[in-house]
Amino acid sequence: MQTWIYWTFVVTLVILQQTMATTLTNLFNKSVLKGLEKIRKRQQHGPEPAAAFPSVNQICFGLDQLEAYKDQFATFIDHNNDGRASFEEIKHYLQKYNNKVTDDQVRSFLLRRDTNGDGEVDFIPDYLTEMATPNYSATTAREWFNLEDADQDGYVTKDELIAIARNIGMSPEKAEETANGYYMGADVNGDRQLDWKEYSSLFTE
Questions:
Q1: Three-state secondary structure call for residue 157
Q2: What distance in Å separates the CA atoms of residue 96 and residue 104, rounded to the nearest whole number?
Q3: Are 184 and 158 in contact (CB under 8 A)?
Q4: Which among 24, 42, 143, 165 could disulfide-bond with 170, CB atoms 3.0 to 4.6 Å apart, if both were Cys?
Q5: Where are the domains of the chain?
Q6: For residue 154, what are the CA distances in angstroms to 72, 157, 184, 185?
Q7: Is 171 helix (H, G, I), strand (E, B) or coil?
Q8: Which CATH architecture has domain 138-202?
Q9: What is the DSSP letter of 154?
Q10: pLDDT in tens, 2-15
Q11: β-pairing, 156-157 with 84-85?
């Protein structure tokens, strides 16, 4: 009798846990969508919106994925963990890619992602929108090319890419793997560096 009661309790607990996880996921996704809808109504149409708004199906994340994005946002950008990335926080982040980044570059980077015009990049909806619908435009490609071309010689070299990867916390092995596996796959002529044409090919969907 006691065994039956025990297993009934265990099964009930598992069901409750699964139900709570599903409920929390739905509530979070609804919060994201509500925020996006408010911004959509306020945003004026322009030649290039700050961000493309995803559909209902595109913006849904699981709890594990949401937690991973939140940790990523807090670790790399949102140092005071208030859910918003200020100009200074974004500048600090971009300096890991290029320590000579200018205020104009930081301002442009921020404005293109600040969907509600509050002067900051919010975790909801700005950062999650960026994660849900990556921007593969030529403008985005040029933005990152200029950041990663540290010496501004018109090429993004393998050494520059490895240095960036190390700056953002990758191990030497992972940095080498990332540079070789993702970036250098676009190195058509095998000179261990990417010109603009080679680099921009990485931003093709």
A1: strand
A2: 16
A3: yes
A4: 165
A5: 63-129, 138-202
A6: 30, 10, 16, 18
A7: coil
A8: Orthogonal Bundle (1.10)
A9: S
A10: 444 434 443 444 44
A11: unpaired
Helix then strand then coil, in percent of the chain rounded to 5, is 60, 5, 35
As a whole number of angstroms, the distance between CA 29 and CA 23 comes to 10
How many residues are present in the chain?
A: 205
Domain pair 63-129 / 138-202, same fold: yes
In the chain, what's the furthest Cα-to-Cα distance? 78
Tokens of 124: 């909801």
Q: What is the pLDDT of residue 60?
A: 64
Single pTM value for the model? 0.66
Cis peptide leading into residue 125 (ω within 30°): yes
Please state the CATH superfamily assignment of the domain spanning residues 63-129 in this structure.
Answer: EF-hand (1.10.238.10)
Closest by alpha carbon to 61, among 110, 131, 122? 131
Q: How far apart are CA 22 and CA 62, in angstroms?
A: 9
